[in-house]
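Sequence in, structure out.
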Amino acid sequence: MITIIDLIPKIFSILFVVLVYIFIVKIIQLVHSDIAVMMRQKTKGDSVGTYLKLLNIRSSLSFPVSESYEISADVTIGRSSRCEICIDDPFLSSEHAAIIVQDKVCFLQDLGSTNGTLLNGERLEGDPIELINGDKITFGNLSFIFITDNEE
């Protein structure tokens, strides 16, 4: 006769296997979304261009945010609908930061935000700072990596 005590280890082993499968599916989804972003192409040309790639897990955020944001001209980032990159993060200022594009070179500037903007872990102050491929940008609850195919 099978008792409840005999069933408990079997139930836990089944739950463990299910959790492992869920974990594997989530990893595959993350890898797929990263590959999709990297494979995206501009409408004119084969380069990936310049964009911000979200480092956070979107499902852990309480507000909607895109996986990536293309940077082809000057953009402002903040909660205001006037911003080109509008994100409803409660820790973002209305107009939090700006990315300025000059001769295919991008510069990051904090726009006097309340909670500040971090570039590679250091708070931005004053003049715009040039961005290079792989820079980590943090504002509010969000972290992005700056990606560019600019060879310069």
